[in-house]
Design brief:
Blueprint (H helix, E strand, L loop, with lengths): L11 H20 L2 H10 L4 H9 L11
Amino acid sequence: MTNHHLDHTPTRRTDTDLSRAINRGLAVAILANLQSAIDLMRAENVPTPIIARVLNKDQQRWSTDWK
């Protein structure tokens, strides 16, 4: 018997939502300031390690991230 409610595999929708939140945050960082970008991504539930990675390490961004 499989416990589907315990399966924590991300769904495509979650990945898409996260990707959009990250891209909005990157746009805010570039067009406004870092603190506003951090605040926006936190409000959209982007995990802190991901926020740090995308804002601090350009070379580790996904090819689909806003540049």
